[in-house]
Amino acid sequence: MSGIYIHIPFCKQACHYCDFHFSTQLGKKEAMVQTIAKEMVLRKSEVEDEVETIYFGGGTPSVLSNKEIEFLIQTVYDNYKVIDHPEITLEANPDDLVSSRAQSRSLFLDYKNAGINRLSIGIQSFFDEDLKLMNRAHNAGEAEQCIKEAKQYFDNITIDLIYGIPGMDNERWKSNIQRALDFGLPHISSYALTVEPRTALKKFIEKGVVPDVDDEQAQEQFHILVDMLAEQGFVNYEISNFGKPGFFSKNNTAYWLGKKYLGVGPSAHSFDGKNRGWNIRNNPTYIKKINEGILPIEVEALSQSDRYNEAVMTGLRTVWGVSLEKIEKEFGLTYLDYLNQQAQKYVEQGLLQLVDGKLLTTKKGKFLADGIASDLFFVD
Question: pTM for this one?
Answer without folding.
Answer: 0.94
